[in-house]
Amino acid sequence: MTGRRTVVTGVGVVAPGGASRDRFWKTITEGRTATRRISFFDPSPFRSQIAAECDFDPVAAGLTDAERRRADRYVQFALACSAEAVADAGLVLSDAERDRAGVVLGTAVGGTMALEQEYVTVSDQGRRWLVDAARGGPYLYQALVPSSLAADVACRHGLHGPAQVVSTGCTSGIDAIGYAHQLIVDGEADVVLAGAADSPISPVTVASFDAIKATSPDNDDPAHASRPFDADRHGFVLAEGAAVLVLEEAGRARRRGAHVYCEVAGYASRSNGYHMTGLRPDGLEMGLAVTDALRQGRIAPEQVSYISAHGSGTRQNDRHETAAFKRALGEAAYRVPISSIKSMVGHSLGAIGSIEMAACALAIEFGVVPPTANWSTRDPECDLDYVPNEAREVPVDVALSVGSGFGGFQSAMVFRRRPAAVVG
Amino acid sequence: MTARAVVTGIGVVAPSGVGADAHWRTVLAGTRRTGPITLFDPAGYPTRHGGQVPDFTADSYADSRQLVQTDRWTHLGFAATRLALADAGLPERAPDPYGYAVTLASSSGGNLFGQRELQRLWGGSSRTVGAYQSIAWFYAASVGQLSIHHQFKGPSGVLVAETAGGLDSLAHAARAVRRGTPVVIAGATECPLSPYALACQLRSGLLTDVADPQRAYRPFDTSASGYLPAEGGAVFVVEELGHALSRGARIYGEVSGWGSTHDAAHTTEDSAGDVGQYARAMRLALDRAGVAAARIDVVLPDALGVPRYDRSEAEALRAVFADRPPPVTTQKPLTGRAHQGGSALDVATALLAFAHDTLPASAGPDEVADGCELDFLREHRRPRSRLALVCARGFDGFNSALVLRGAAPTRGETP
Q: Where would I find the Ketosynthase family 3 (KS3) domain in this sequence (chain A) (predicted)?
């Protein structure tokens, strides 16, 4: 099965600021921020009271009554995204092809939102340790096991290939696309719906990040609270969202005349083996992941046209990945435009890696690099080109994206424009 | 030449015992180790029994700082990983960090830790949780902690496919070995026995409410009534064959084939799973291993213990094996179902069977239910081809199968 390649033929996005691919792209290329005061519950008891929420209407997104009853919010996002991606790809599968079409989706915290809501009921507002199981909703088990995410998408599209959820925390979204790519390269599947979804804007998640002061407390100015690479940053802004890509074996896509956004040129991950939340300032393992991903695509550092940074807006992250880019790309790191869309759509934990890969596919498609919003004060430790505040029109042939997460996971993925001769 | 992935270390932490030897003794004796749940008082629940790890001393496997930061599920993972590394003759810290990775399956995360923190948040006086909640309950917590402690810095991962994911983690490890990581820790532990997690599981409708633990969870039997939940699982050292040979490691067997499919249908009150898709997962595993179905020595089935699923599993096996299925043995009734940890435990059982040159008698059924007629092993028997097919299904349509090729026996007892 050597020689098999993976291409992206469909993109679906539910993100803060716009629950569709086009609205997402418009939001981030206009440099608009979608961070705001939390509206899902009263956030006033919490240190960080802001988030990037999606204005998501499941009925408008075409979800059935049964899907809306069964699926927790993050799964609903994935159902909407996968439908958009499948339609975008013009994907029509025969029965035989469904056997070789899989689903690999990432999530960091899965059904947390539903689990917390149900917990409040069955525990009588936290008064009972021995909860009253009889008061739980009918889909409580689906909320406990995050495999529901892949199952529901497989059910919606009638896919019988390998189905899996990847849950490596904040690199889940990149890793899920990476695993899907490996399934295609290895010949285990020809088509995979790959991406990630998370809907963590719930009191327990907000309180968890409060406890370690990871999130921004800039409650007075939510629109400008997510400030990656800016000297005046104060932590990340929690978010929700999802993205699903249609990954397809290149020959299959070519034979059916599919529109190809780009090729998956490489994927790699390493762990820093250092600390559950801390990062080594030298960026060693992220750098190694980047180098390995570029090596797979036989891409030299000078060929990278855009880097979608992890850019969470914590000081340690921004230093860490700036060091990693320099380590992996050398002098080329100073010339490549780098941006963090988390400045606009926040940090949706496991989902954001896929949303950022969607942004990379669209950057290649449209020749536009989204900016890092809210950038105003230079941090001497972050001395690369972070594309401040305004999108930049520039041909993008090779887009690199990285992710970094609790547990020490560091992942990198490279998308590359398909050469015209190959596409034609 | 494609790299071959072999298992060189087994770490069991399960209701059947701590350590591969303890597990094997329980299997040989056929002792049911399910009993009353004591991790909390289950009096108010219709299911009050389950499988718990006996006499588990977490502080033998991790230091106090690690224990306070993590859930019991991760404590079990620390233990199983240490046992697997020791069994493989590997040091506690990876000598070549980027050549070592860890990919485990988890479908219930740190739910016990999480429930305590939810109670503090909602039932306490301040709207706060502890500093470790953010790193203790999410599904990647165990893999992150193990990677840090053991210096596994290669490509690591966490997979979820409800019960089927334990097998998927071994398949993923074999893929990683083929891609150039010489040592990958794989398998799963689970601990879904907090009051809230058990309440969640009850909603699946698949648990038994039979009060007598000896009579509960009886897959393929006329009295099958659902399953008993359990904690624990097994963790393995999966290693590139040349790497294992060069250090003179004992080899249990090879991860030769794997296959995964999905029903594209949910689990409901009437569903029985898709026989065709389940059979296809088994055939994919056989094809990848390059093994004709007729050569399989023994099958370790999913054995859900829900009559309609037991029948469809028997039907899938008859379809794959042209109406002449090989001997079938299930040990899950001895432990209960530890979800993804349970399918990993079946892999341990199969590899230990070859190591001990003994296919263990099946823990039931006593009276075979209609439609479940299979060649259940009634007594211990010597293996012949040393090829095992391990099968697992996951709630809401997941199907996975693994073909293991056992090495020559290393532990010479006779059956």
A: 3-417
Pairwise CA distance, residues B359 & B393, whole Å: 22
Structure tokens at B274: 């898709």
Indicate if A329 and A302 belong to the same structural domain: yes
Average pLDDT in the B118-130 region? 95
Residues of chain A numbered 158-177 and touching chain B (CB < 8 Å): 158-169, 172, 175
Q: What is the mean pLDDT of chain A?
A: 96
Q: Does A186 touch chain B (CB under 8 A)?
A: yes
Q: Is the same domain home to B236 and B270?
A: no
Residue A252 has pLDDT above 80, yes or no: yes
- Least Cα distance to A324 among A343, A311, A341 occurs for A311
Q: What is the mean pLDDT of residues B311-317?
A: 98
Q: HSE of B226 in the Cβ direction (CA atoms, 13 Å)? A: 20
On whether both A163 and A241 belong to a single domain, the answer is yes
Cα B206 to the chain's mean position, in Å? 18
CB contact under 8 A, A129 and B195: yes
Q: Are residues B39 and B82 in the same domain?
A: yes
State residue A99's pLDDT score: 98
Mean of pLDDT values over B190-212 = 95
Q: Is residue A260 part of a domain?
A: no
User: What is the C-alpha to C-alpha distance for residues B152 and A288, in angstroms, rounded to an integer?
Assistant: 14
pLDDT of A258-300, one tens digit each? 999 999 999 999 999 999 999 999 999 999 999 999 999 999 9
Q: Do B191 and B42 belong to one domain?
A: yes
Residue B278 to residue B290: CA distance in whole angstroms: 19
Q: Please tell me the distance in Å from B57's CA to the nearest CA on chain A.
A: 24
Give the C-alpha distances (Å, rounded to integers) separating B26 from A133, B57, B233.
Answer: 33, 19, 14
- In DSSP terms, which residues pair with A412 in a beta bridge? A268, A402
* Residue A236 covered by a domain: yes
Question: Is A109 in the same domain as A134?
Answer: yes
Q: B45 and B102: one domain?
A: yes
- Among the listed residues A170, A262, A360, A382, the single catalytic one is A170
Range of the domain at A357: 267-423
Kindly give, in sequence order, each residue whose CB lies less than 8 Å from that of residue A408, ignoring residues fewer than 6 positions away.
Answer: A271, A272, A273, A274, A275, A276, A285, B144, B147, B148
Task: Report whether B219 contacts B362 (CB < 8 A).
Answer: no
Last residue of a domain, one of A255, A286, A306: A255
**Could you tell me if A49 and A182 lie in one domain?**
yes
Cβ atoms B373, B313 nearer than 8 A: no
Is B21 found in the same domain as B124? yes
Q: Does A157 contact B at CB distance below 8 Å?
A: yes
pLDDT of residue B414: 38
**A127 at interface of B, judged by CB pairs closer than 8 A:** yes
What is the extent of the structural domain holding B400?
258-405
Does residue B413 lie within any of the structural domains? no
The answer to whether position A261 is within a domain reads: no
d(CA B191, CA B141): 13
Residues near A209 by beta carbon (within 8 Å), at least 6 away in sequence: A48, A215, A236, A238, B134
Residue among B97, B127, B266 whose CB faces A46 most closely: B127
My answer on whether A237 and A370 are in the same domain is: no
Which token pair is B95? 């000598």
State how far the alpha carbon of B22 is from the alpha carbons of B16, B18, B54, B379, B386, in Å.
7, 6, 11, 20, 22
- pLDDT for residue A1: 45
Q: Residue B98 corresponds to which tokens in the numbers above?
A: 């980027």
Residues B326 and B232 in one domain: no
Residue B121 has pLDDT above 50, yes or no: yes
Among residues A78, A87, A27, the alpha carbon closest in space to that of A223 is found at A27
CATH classification of the domain holding B161: 3.40.47.10
The domain total for chain B is 2
Domain endpoint, select from B218, B246, B274:
B246
Cα separation, A211 vs B69, in Å, equals 14
